[in-house]
# Entry
Amino acid sequence: MSESKLQVAECFFSIQGEGPHAGTPAVFLRLAGCNLRCGKTETNIMEVSPQEDEPDGDATWICDTIDVWREPDDSYTAEELVEEFRARGWWNNLLEKNAHLILTGGEPTLPQHQRAFAEFMEYTYDEFGEQPFVEVETNGTQELTDAFTLNVDLFNCSMKLSNSGHTYDERVDKDAQSQMVSMTEHEYGPDVKWKFVVSSEEDLDEIVSLTEDLEIPDEYISLMPAGQTQEQLRQTYPKVAEIVKDTGWDFTPRLHVDTWNLQTGV
# Structure
């Protein structure tokens, strides 16, 4: 087995804050780097402070973990990462207490991350004969390898809208997103949930256009209020709730922001 290393920005034990498993105990494995920089498209990413800055240009929100994922804290082989989880007391939570493993970022499906994570999961199965339930948080712009997808139980695909500050071509990759659509209703393989960050009612037409163009079934679509602070979420929660009542899509909260506000790694 090769010695590809996972470029880890941070890892911590908490609860899943978003999506269909919101509230589930989970170990978060945040990988470094992203092909997008939501809310700060005109700024040097190394100088961003999301807690203080305003969004660039037409963006209405800022990725709340830029200051964490923009560079790795450490790198691990599969064996080293398992030992790290054991030392922190997390491995038993994953395998014995049904906690989920959340692969997040940044963008965890960058090609180098896919290779290293597939090796990590192969190692865990060889070592323990079982694997944890794996969720992947992704922007959906990267094509997925079979070796990577084989080890994922749920993709939470957060396609970006123009409110992220990115152009259409930067945030929409028809090949990659069509690949994920093909998995959405497939009898075998990972589940897929599509999540859209909403700032206002004006975002609705764009979501309808994207979901119809990609032929995403309504029952797999979630709307999530934009906001990296509790104060901002107080403004967007009611707006998104009203849209959900009208469309029949579902509402996903941001429990980690509701609970810890701007604090990360908790």
